[in-house]
Amino acid sequence: MCIRDSLKASAGGGGKGMRVVREPRNLQREYAAASREAATSFGDGTVYVERLLEKSRHVEVQVLCDSHGNAVHLFERECRIQRRHQKVVEEAPSPVLDEITRKRMGDAAVNAARAVDYEGAGTVEFLLAEDGEFHFLEMNTRLQVEHPITEAVFGIDLVKEQICVASGAGMSFSQDSLEPKGHAIECRINAERLPTFSPSPGNIKEFHSPGGIGIRMDSAIYNGFTVPPHYDSLIGKLIVHADDRPMAIKRLSLIHI
């Protein structure tokens, strides 16, 4: 095993079951910790080794494939801003990809889906290294929490498309017809206690759902809602869309919940 590798839970997700190994003497200790957390979280303690790419960006590509042989990608989402390996802010498109890398990454995602005869909506995730090369991370065979920013940029209802594909119908668009418009950012709203960011279940005394042009709030909470202690601390998603990235950031900064 090389220095600066990482261990990752085979059945993992949400940043659980991951450990960095910087020196060989730490391997046994970190393996035991990763396996233990994986077994507790997912019922499977299997872990694998992957190359550690520090200072990389987490970039993912939305794909959609139907039973008629059609497979498309809806470009990428930037997911670099994370805490404890858990995404907290996402945006589309990525502010750092050039058109050549964007096309290569999109083609790679579609080819990966085709290689396993995939059907439905899915997300192929990559790490973008400092040298500009990207590396396959994993594929999530479902819609992601952050799929609304892709919907905002393309004006496509991905949930509807996924249901149509599952029913045997073809998707309503082709790769050539896809044209992104503007920039979208999503912020995850979590019920957490500062400064530890630990889950904070309890009663919501006051909640104001933001609205207006280019603003979308996905949540089931309301005044008097009780956040249960049994689930993830995510209680809402705030999505903004504007003509460009600076305008999207400004629109986001003016919102108060």
Based on DSSP secondary structure assignment, what is the total number of beta strands?
15
Taking all Cα atoms into account, the compactness measure Rg is: 19 Å
In N-to-C order, the SSE pattern is EEHEEEEHEEHHEEEEEEEH
For the biggest β-sheet, the strand order reads 8-7-4-5-6-9-15-13
Helix % is 10-25%
Uncertain segments are: none
Estimate what percentage of residues fall within beta strands. 25-35%
List keywords for this structure.
single chain, 257 residues, alpha+beta, eight-stranded antiparallel sheet
Question: Which helices and strands occur, and which strands form pairs?
Answer:
Elements: E1 5-9, E2 18-21, H1 27-42, E3 47-51, E4 57-65, E5 71-83, E6 86-92, H2 99-115, E7 120-128, E8 134-140, H3 147-154, H4 158-166, E9 183-190, E10 192-193, E11 198-199, E12 202-203, E13 215-219, E14 226-227, E15 234-242, H5 245-253
Antiparallel strand pairs: 1-2, 1-3, 4-5, 4-7, 5-6, 6-9, 7-8, 9-15, 10-11, 12-14, 13-15
Question: Could you walk me through the main structural features you see in this protein, from its secondary elements to its overall organization?
Answer:
The longest helix is centred in the middle third of the chain and has 17 residues, at 99-115. It contains 5 helices and 15 strands. By secondary structure, it is α+β, with helices and mostly antiparallel strands.
